[in-house]
Amino acid sequence: MKARINLGPAGNCDKDIISSLNRLKSELNLQSQEVEFTLGVKMKNETAKAVGELRKKLGIELSVHAPYYINLSSEDKAKLKKSFNWVFLSCERGHHMGARKIVLHPGFYLKKNPSRTFDIVLENIKRLQKEIRKRKWNVELAPETTGKLSAFGNLDEIIELTRKAKCSFCVDFAHLYARQQGKINFAEVLDKLKSFNHIHSHFSCIAFTKKGERKHLDISVNKPPFKELAKELLKRKVNITIIAESPRTWRDSLAMKKILGKLGYK
């Protein structure tokens, strides 16, 4: 058995998603793309179905990033209702596209302690999943590790949430690096994830302050260094999808592919 590493951009690499998928396959030879609903779900179901047909034909792996506005730790019923609606819209479009993972930022601690925040997020993930099953959407919620210290979602919280809610997850390596003030031990992170048969992830470099994440940067910045992650992935024969979330998206997907190739990955 060897590592299986799928690479692709966050967002389109061409003028629209149909053109993007065709280019991913024919020109760039990348395997994945994350469809960005971060600023709202504007895609219609008819478009999502067309995307799904093409995705299947080309063999591209799709995921969805749900809107940034979601806060599943809120105790305000009106705000929570809006968050649920954004999740449902993302899931519906994802289902029609054949995008299995629905990545979302879980929420913020605000004035609550981490334990109370965890319980609220867990309850709401379970409520969402119950409705997703009822609607027969073939998707999995994937709460993401977050980069701001004020946000719920360190690695241990996301792993525990995944196990207790029986949902999926997304590891953003740059967010972990920012959250830990410029420190990351890729071996330790992967050891914590070794019981999962697949890892959905994001990678970029990142600028941060004492409060955590500030902005994503190109991987040429080398903070954190992708080559070190690549070595650990190959050493452990990891099955992983890596979405490039840098400003250069697809270009950095190709840069990561080149680094992996130099390390012997084919």
Describe the structure.
The chain has 266 residues and is an alpha/beta fold. It has one domain: TIM Barrel (Alpha-Beta Barrel), CATH 3.20.20. Helix content is 44%, strand content 20%. It has nine helices and twelve strands. The strands form four sheets. Strands 1-12-9-8 form a four-stranded parallel sheet. A four-stranded parallel sheet has the order 2-3-4-6. Strand 2 (32-36), helix 2 (45-58) and strand 3 form a beta-alpha-beta unit. It is globular.
Helix-strand category: alpha/beta
Compressed to H and E, one letter per element, the order equals EHEHEHEEHEEHEHHEEEHEH
Low-confidence stretches: none
Quaternary state reads single chain
Name the CATH superfamily assignment: Divalent-metal-dependent TIM barrel enzymes
Determine the N-to-C terminus distance.
Answer: 13 Å
Q: What would the principal axes of the Cα set say about the shape?
A: globular
Instruction: Write down the Rg.
Output: 18 Å
Approximate strand percentage = 15-25%
Q: How do the strands line up in the largest sheet?
A: 1-12-9-8
Number of alpha- plus pi-helical segments = 9
Helix content: 40-55%
Number of domains: 1
Q: How many strand segments?
A: 12
- CATH architecture heading: Alpha-Beta Barrel
The biggest sheet amounts to: 4 strands, parallel
If you consult CATH, what is the topology?
A: TIM Barrel
Mean pLDDT: 97
Please write the CATH class name.
Alpha Beta
